[in-house]
């Protein structure tokens, strides 16, 4: 019980806290997109492919692959853990398969049935083969049997192991063992539709990671049949060939599938060609279309993706979400293309005339302080909230998707509206005339230590510049906006080479900049350009005429990144179009980073453009 003296002390401390907050500024909430702010899952060291289902009582059950060594090391195995507080804290690990140096288990998928039974489907080296026919030792986490166990007590214990017959096909017969050993693994989320279940997996024609193709395991009664011996299993597509396009090369891997309607299915997968791929089935997985590049719309721009897992989900509102990395590097997260998985993006999809169309993407996750990103995500909808769980291979974390982000993605299909939150300057008409000068609004530092306090690594603010312009010349180095002082402190928006726009900024000591994609601006046409500096993710983006720049055919990345220690970059005076051969129709400045969706909304509201399908 508090005494009067205690109460006075508490009130005094509270007043002091409020005063300090007023003096030093309210500390922003940690950025939910920052992987390091997520809640940590348990593991033994290596940690991969966390897959989560929600039981009827609200318990989260996660199956994942772990081990004391690195990826592919002996002793890797499938485990489970449970959470009663939406992923904030977790139980200890429970073996789905015990660690065995000779028989690896790996890469489990999770399914929960209406009867609250949890299934874990995984790869198990049941034959104990750990070498090539010539005796060369190999990693054995992507070979062997397709197995499952189930739990009727929310992951506290697991049944005996059961094996699903995995029929031998041409890919198996081509491998070094002639089909006696099968090479495969899965990454996906089972799709449930009309009382049925289906998930995708990758078969390999050669060890290791060569001649990949897509296959699907379907059951029409696993959701209701309690006797594992009576469950129906089908390996699809029918015939001897899996889903692949010869034009996409050897690397065609990590197939994930969602249900559209009726017997219609849609799958996505990774390649090493700088883009993801996709295919459709109109007969429940028995046959598939020739895979095409995954595109924002049929015949439209390819969705860029390195050799990393593109993950797709169907949400409870009947729409779709796609996780990808939005760059066209062609290998893993290491080597010359380090950073290819850092940052992660989300697009929202909807089915239009039997095909999925995608919105412009938003940043959903990034890793601070390095190039290695997070991948192999899963999505959880629970209690009106949406969570993502992802891994860096040594850490798996759960984080809530930023409130409002998904709603903004869905709203891209609508008419758009001018964002008002954070709008600190708006100029139109005569105020945008060439040579006009106004006081530059003060912006928060992108990093550093403002007002005597230290910023956390994810606390940087950011800013956004939104302009509508008409150019009479595409000559480079025409200034649109400029706040730089004699020390170079400030920011400048100017024309770049080849019909592009360039944003640069400097704190008087260090500078950064990035260019939009080229060829997007023409003469004597009204264009809308939004340049955003995200001080938390350290990312610079451009949205030109409602499209997020992705690098096009010239660059692997359409977004740029900058360092964490920028100080004040505001400048004192904003000079408007001092040497522009053309006109500015409006200028908007925000003291925060706009979402891509807000930039699209500004474009639509400013130009009257309409969304797809309207």
Give your account of this protein's structure.
Strand 2 (46-54) and strand 3 (60-67) form a beta hairpin. The longest helix has 21 residues, at 4-24. The chain folds into 2 domains: 35-411, 6 Propeller (Neuraminidase), CATH 2.120.10; 423-607, Jelly Rolls (Sandwich), CATH 2.60.120. Helix content is 7%, strand content 37%. With 614 residues, the chain is mostly beta strands. The protein is built from 4 helices and 39 strands. The termini are far apart.
Q: For the record, give the distance between the C-alpha atoms at the N and C termini, rounded to a whole number.
A: 62 Å
Q: Radius of gyration from the CA trace?
A: 26 Å
- Tell me the strand percentage band: 35-45%
The CATH topology of the largest domain turns out to be Neuraminidase
Gross morphology is elongated
Second-tier CATH architecture of the largest domain: 6 Propeller
**What summary fits the major beta sheet?**
7 strands, antiparallel
Structural class: mainly beta
CATH top-level class of the largest domain: Mainly Beta
Low-confidence runs of at least 5 consecutive residues: 1-26
User: How many β strands by DSSP?
Assistant: 39
Oligomer: single chain
Helix content: under 10%
Mean of residue pLDDT?
Answer: 92
- Can you tell me the number of structural domains? 2
Annotation field: number of helices:
4
In summary, what is this structure?
The protein has four helices and 39 strands. By secondary structure, the chain is mostly beta strands. The radius of gyration is 26 Å and the shape is elongated.
């Amino acid at each position: 019980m508090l005494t009067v003296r205690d109460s006075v002390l508490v009130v005094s401390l509270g007043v002091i806290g409020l005063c300090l907050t007023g003096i030093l500024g309210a500390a922003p909430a940690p950025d939910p997109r920052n992987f390091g702010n997520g809640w940590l899952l348990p593991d033994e060291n290596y940690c991969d492919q966390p897959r989560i289902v929600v039981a009827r009582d609200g318990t989260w059950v996660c199956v994942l692959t772990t081990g004391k060594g690195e990826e592919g090391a002996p002793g890797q195995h499938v485990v489970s853990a449970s959470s009663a507080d939406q992923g904030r804290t977790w139980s200890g690990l429970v073996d789905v398969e015990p660690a065995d140096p000779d028989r690896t288990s790996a890469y489990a998928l999770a399914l929960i049935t209406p009867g609250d039974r949890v299934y874990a489907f995984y790869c198990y080296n049941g034959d104990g083969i750990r070498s090539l026919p010539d005796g060369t030792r190999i990693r054995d986490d992507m070979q062997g049997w397709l197995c499952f166990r189930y739990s009727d007590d929310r992951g506290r214990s697991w049944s005996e192991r059961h094996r699903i017959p995995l029929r031998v096909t041409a890919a198996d017969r081509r491998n070094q063992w002639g089909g006696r050993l099968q090479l495969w693994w899965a990454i996906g989320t089972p799709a449930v539709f009309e009382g049925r279940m289906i998930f995708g997996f990758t078969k390999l024609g050669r060890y290791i990671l060569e001649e990949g193709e897509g296959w699907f395991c379907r059951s029409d009664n696993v959701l209701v049949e309690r006797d594992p011996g009576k469950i129906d299993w089908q390996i699809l597509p029918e015939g001897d060939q899996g889903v692949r396009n010869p034009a996409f090369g050897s690397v065609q891997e990590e197939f994930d599938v969602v249900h559209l309607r009726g017997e219609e299915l849609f799958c996505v997968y990774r390649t090493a060609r700088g883009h993801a791929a996709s295919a459709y089935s109109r007969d429940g997985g028995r046959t598939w279309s020739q895979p095409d590049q995954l595109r924002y719309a049929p015949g439209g721009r390819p969705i860029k993706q390195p050799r990393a897992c593109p993950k797709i989900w169907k949400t409870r509102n009947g729409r779709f979400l796609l996780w990808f990395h939005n760059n066209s590097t062609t290998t893993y997260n290491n080597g010359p293309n380090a950073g290819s998985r850092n940052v992660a993006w989300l697009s929202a999809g909807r089915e239009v005339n039997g095909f999925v169309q995608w919105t412009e993407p938003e940043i959903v996750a990034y890793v601070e302080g390095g190039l290695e990103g997070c991948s192999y995500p899963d999505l959880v909808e629970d209690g009106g909230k949406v969570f993502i769980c992802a891994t860096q291979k040594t850490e798996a974390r759960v984080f809530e998707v930023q409130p409002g982000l998904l709603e903004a993605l869905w709203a891209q299909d609508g008419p758009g509206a001018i964002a008002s939150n954070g709008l600190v300057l708006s100029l139109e008409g005569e105020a945008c005339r060439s040579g006009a000068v106004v006081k530059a609004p003060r912006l928060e530092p992108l990093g550093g230590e403002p007002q005597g306090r230290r910023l956390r690594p994810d606390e940087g603010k950011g800013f956004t510049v939104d302009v509508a312009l008409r150019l009479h010349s595409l000559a480079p180095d025409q200034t649109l906006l400029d706040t730089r002082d004699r020390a170079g402190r400030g920011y400048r928006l100017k024309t770049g080479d080849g019909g592009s726009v360039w944003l640069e900024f400097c704190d008087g000591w260090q500078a950064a900049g990035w260019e939009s994609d080229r060829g997007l601006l023409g003469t004597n046409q009204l264009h809308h350009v939004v340049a955003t500096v995200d001080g938390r993710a350290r990312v610079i983006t451009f949205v030109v005429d409602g499209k997020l720049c992705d690098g096009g055919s010239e660059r692997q990345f359409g977004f740029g990144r900058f360092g964490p220690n920028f100080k004040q970059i505001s400048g004192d005076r904003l000079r408007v179009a001092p040497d522009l051969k053309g006109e500015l129709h409006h200028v908007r400045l925000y003291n925060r980073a706009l979402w891509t969706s807000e930039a699209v909304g500004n474009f639509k509201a400013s130009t009257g453009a309409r969304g797809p399908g309207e």
